[in-house]
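Q: My labmate handed me this sequence with no annotations at all. I'd like to see what the chain might look like in three dimensions before we decide whether it's worth expressing. Could you predict it?
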Amino acid sequence: MAEYRVISGKDFIKAKPTGQIDLQESKKVLASIASITKPPADYEILLDIRDVNHNGNAKKLINHFEILEFVKELVRNRSAFRNKIAVLSRDGRQLDNSRFMELCATNRGLNVKAFTSLEDSIQWLTTPIEA
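A: Here is what I predict for the chain of 131 residues:
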């Protein structure tokens, strides 16, 4: 039976003093999260990025290159991220970025889905995958 882990975007998306994403530090934190969720742990993950706004400016969101780098880190740690990953975001550009992450991750064999509703994301996570 799977367990569930909620990871806040603030817990793994790190910023430099300039407000830019610190991609290397963020990837290190994501890798450390992976070490916690590796087998025999069996976690479904809710990645809540609604609070991510790394410099206080809503127009300055994570870009596609940074999203691809996060997806690459998930793929590098595939055994830890082999279960479902729900990405919970706000509407608008943040949701567009979450859908881009979903597309990139799905194309690489991961089970990622973007949501704006906490209830919908939990329902998806708790629904068994059909064979």
